[in-house]
Amino acid sequence: IIDRILERVQSELFNLGSQLATRTEDIRPTQPVIQPRHIERLEQELDHFNDSLPSLTSFVLPAGGALTAHLHLCRTVCRRAERLAVTLSHREPVAAEVIHYLNRLSDALFVFARHASRITGQPEVLWKPEQT
Question: What is the model's pTM?
Answer without folding.
Answer: 0.91
